[in-house]
From TrEMBL:
Organism: Streptomyces flavotricini
Record CDD domains: ABC_DR_subfamily_A
Sequence ranges assigned to domain ABC transporter in this UniProt record: 18-253
Entries under Gene3D superfamilies matching the protein: P-loop containing nucleotide triphosphate hydrolases
SUPFAM superfamilies per UniProt: P-loop containing nucleoside triphosphate hydrolases (SSF52540)
Origin organism lineage: Bacteria, Bacillati, Actinomycetota, Actinomycetes, Kitasatosporales
Pfam families: ABC_tran
Keywords noted in UniProt: ATP-binding, Nucleotide-binding
Keyword ATP-binding: yes
Record-given protein name: ABC transporter ATP-binding protein
Amino acid sequence: MMNNAQTAPTEPASPAAVHARGLTVRRGTGRTPRTVIDSIAFDVPRGRITGLLGPSGCGKSTLMRSIVGTQAHVTGTLEVLGSPAGHPELRSRIGYVTQAPSVYDDLTVRQNLEYFAAVLTPGRAAADRRRAAVTRAIADVDLTGRAGALAGNLSGGQRSRVSLAVALLGTPELLVLDEPTVGLDPVLRRDLWNLFHDIAATRGATILVSSHVMDEAERCHDLLLMREGRILAQDTPDALRTRTHSATVEEGFLRLVDEANAEAKPEVAR
Ligand SMILES: Nc1ncnc2c1ncn2[C@@H]1O[C@H](COP(=O)(O)OP(=O)(O)OP(=O)(O)O)[C@@H](O)[C@H]1O
């Protein structure tokens, strides 16, 4: 979809799961689409949980769509698992969960998974493999006891877990989760975060998860803090708190915002 000389075959692929340089995204129709991601550079390390955090509208979903290859008007370098973002060979290697759970309410949990498994791995020859993958994905998200329930009768948290199970079907190396905990109560949020850590630990998967709730930052191994289409910081929660002399990531984020504002609008000399 994009990519320049930096991703030419002679260049060694980045060891990072996601490698971005000069990444710019424009959105909107008409003559003057707006730049919503502005020449950013970052790396998402493999096998870890990276939190993409920032206020509503800062560009988190746009960035995730770019990484999974569904966003138009992306320029710069964006390499995912060693290939240019959007490359067909990445389809089965990435699991993507959008903000709205994409499940069919009139199908059971198992039927939902069977349907998506058939799309992912069609053909009679793969029937046994599909069945095993479905059973495993349902168990991974702890829904074995609800496998026969209609998705429409599940709670919000359980529906989110069905979406996550769909994303886990292909045993992805990279999971991209767009605000998976939005609207969930604190207990469900904690359970889901524990599940992300289990998945990262047992499957060795890389997880990129977005949130605009700053306390979720504390649950991540690494952070990408975004604001107004730019990366404000890339750090571990500990390093960020230390560097900004803050008790929490939220406080550290607000300090960085204040610093960025002060740099952008220097006081007029009197
Ligand atoms: N289809 C679109 N056309 C034009 N601009 C858009 C479109 N979708 C989003 N935008 C703009 O792009 C910017 C980034 O939006 P994006 O959805 O990526 O932010 P976000 O950080 O994910 O927000 P939220 O946390 O509310 O989901 C916003 O200013 C938004 O208004």
